[in-house]
Amino acid sequence: MMWEPPPEHPLRRLFAGYTEFTFQNTFGVADPPLIDYLSGLLSRYVTSDAAVRLKDATGRQLDNVAELVAEVADLPQGRTACELHRQIGDFALFWTGVYPEWFHKMRSRVQIDYFVDYCRQGKRSYYLASQLETSDHEQEAAVLRRLSDQFEMCAFGLTKVREEWEKDRTEPTGRLIGVA
Question: Distances from the Cα of 79 to the Cαs of 71, 95, 151, 153, in angstroms?
Answer without folding.
Answer: 14, 24, 22, 27
